[in-house]
Design brief:
The protein is an alpha/beta fold. The protein is built from twelve helices and 13 strands. The chain has two domains: about 30-150, NAD(P)-binding Rossmann-like Domain (Rossmann fold); about 155-310, Dihydrodipicolinate Reductase, domain 2 (2-Layer Sandwich). The protein has helices at about 1-20, 45-55, 70, 85-90, 105-115, 130-145, 155-165, 190-195, 200-205, 205-215, 315-325, 335-345, and strands at about 35-40, 60-65, 95-100, 120-125, 145-150, 175-180, 220-225, 240-245, 250-255, 265-270, 275-280, 285-290, 300-305. It is globular, with a radius of gyration of 23 Å.
C-alpha cells in the first residue's frame, strides 16, 4: 500500500511538472526582467548599468553606445554584450530599455523604444520640447507601456517622506516650498551644459521642479531668473532661480553651478499651516519634521526622522521591476510627468 502511494505521488509530481512545462511562456510567471541600455553618455549611466547588472530581478541583455571612448569606460564592469540599436529594438525578449544617452537624444531614443513596444526609463531631462514629450506620453498611454523619468530623488527616503507629509495633509496647508540644488563645474563641462538655453535651470533645476509639481501641481505663474554670473567667456545660464506662484502658496527654486562644496548645502524646505518638513542635506538624506499636532507616524513637536539606508537609483530600478513583474503602479502618473515637463520648460524659458 505504501508503495502504491509513492508511485501515485511520483506520477502526480511528473504530471504537474509536465503540465507546467506545457504552459505557453506568457502564462508562466516571469521572475527576471530583461533590459538593455540605449546610450551611456549621461553622468548617471555608469551607476545605473552597474546596478541593473547586479540586480536579482534583471537580466542585462546589453547596451548600445556609438562612441568608442564612452564604451572604454565600461571596461571597469563585468563584461556585457555590446549590441546595435536595431538589435535591441527588434529583440522581443527585451522588455525594458534605459535611455542614458546625451540629453539631446533622450526624446528621439525614447520614441524609438516605445514604438518598438518597450517599457522605458528615460533619463532627465526627458526632452527639450513639450511637443516631443507629449508624443512620448501619448505612445506610452496608447500601447499601455510604462514610462519612468529618471529624477533621482523620487526614492530618496528623506525627500519621499517629506513629500508624503505634504501630500497627506500632515503639514496642513502648504504655503511655501524652498528648494536649492547647486553644484560646481569646471570650464570643460560648461559647453555641454550650455547646449540648451535654459542652462542650469533645465539641467539640475529639473530635479527640484519634479518635487514641487508633485506637491503643488502646475503653477499659475512662473517668474524665472536665468543669469550668467560666472567669470567665464560663454553664455551659460549658470546662476538661476524661479518663483512658482499658486493661489495660496509660492515656491522658490534655486540652482547654480558656482558653489564649492555644494552637495552638503542642497535643501528642501516644505512649510505648512501645521508644521514643516526640512531635508538638509538631501544627500546623505536627513529629515526633520516639526508639527503643531501629531499626524501620521509623527509626534507633535520637533523630531529628527530615522531613515533607512539609501543608494541613488536603486528605488527607480526596483520600481520598474515591480511594475513589470508584479503589476504594481508607478509612483508618478503620465499626467504628472506631463505637468512636470511643461513646468520645467516654462521655468527654463524654453517654451515658445
Amino acid at each position: 500500500m505504501v508503495l502504491g502511494i509513492i508511485i501515485r505521488l511520483t506520477m502526480n509530481r511528473r504530471t504537474f511538472s509536465a503540465s507546467l512545462l506545457s504552459l505557453p511562456l506568457a502564462a508562466q510567471p516571469q521572475t527576471r526582467l530583461k533590459a538593455a541600455f540605449l546610450g551611456l553618455q549621461h553622468s548617471h549611466a555608469f551607476d545605473k548599468l552597474r546596478l541593473v547588472q547586479a540586480h536579482p530581478r534583471y537580466t542585462l541583455a546589453g547596451a548600445w553606445e556609438p562612441d568608442p571612448a564612452v564604451r572604454a569606460n565600461y571596461k571597469k564592469l563585468p563584461p556585457f554584450p555590446w549590441l546595435s540599436k536595431d538589435a535591441i529594438l527588434n529583440d522581443p525578449s527585451i522588455s525594458a530599455i534605459f535611455i542614458q544617452s546625451e540629453v539631446k537624444t533622450h526624446g528621439p531614443l525614447a520614441l524609438d523604444a516605445l514604438r518598438a513596444g518597450k517599457h522605458v526609463h528615460i533619463e532627465k531631462p526627458p526632452s527639450e520640447t513639450l511637443a516631443e514629450f507629449q508624443q512620448i506620453v501619448q505612445i506610452a498611454r496608447s500601447k499601455n507601456l510604462r514610462l519612468q523619468t529618471g529624477y533621482m530623488w523620487r526614492f530618496n527616503p528623506a525627500v519621499a517622506r517629506a513629500v508624503e507629509a505634504a501630500q497627506k495633509g500632515w503639514l496642513g496647508d502648504i504655503y511655501h516650498i524652498h528648494a536649492r540644488m547647486n553644484t560646481l563645474i569646471d570650464a570643460r563641462s560648461r559647453p555641454e551644459w550650455n547646449l540648451f538655453s535654459g542652462g542650469q535651470m533645465f539641467e539640475q533645476g529639473a530635479h527640484l521642479t519634479d518635487i514641487i509639481v508633485r506637491i503643488l501641481g502646475k503653477p499659475a505663474k512662473i517668474t524665472s531668473f536665468l543669469r550668467h554670473d560666472g567669470a567665464f567667456n560663454d553664455t551659460l545660464k549658470d546662476n538661476t532661480a524661479a518663483v512658482f506662484e499658486y493661489p495660496r502658496a509660492f515656491a522658490l527654486l534655486v540652482s547654480s553651478v558656482l558653489q564649492p562644496g555644494a552637495g552638503r548645502h542642497r535643501t528642501l524646505e516644505i512649510l505648512g499651516s501645521k508644521g514643516s518638513a526640512i531635508v538638509r542635506p538631501i544627500e546623505p538624506p536627513s529629515l526633520e519634521i516639526d508639527l503643531t499636532e501629531s499626524a501620521g507616524p509623527y509626534q507633535q513637536g520637533h523630531q529628527k526622522v530615522a531613515l533607512p539606508p539609501y543608494q541613488r537609483y536603486t528605488g527607480d530600478i526596483d520600481e520598474l521591476a515591480a511594475a513589470l513583474l508584479d503589476g504594481k503602479p508607478m509612483l508618478v502618473s503620465l499626467d504628472q510627468e506631463l505637468a512636470i515637463q511643461e513646468t520645467l520648460l516654462r521655468a527654463s524659458l524654453m517654451l515658445p
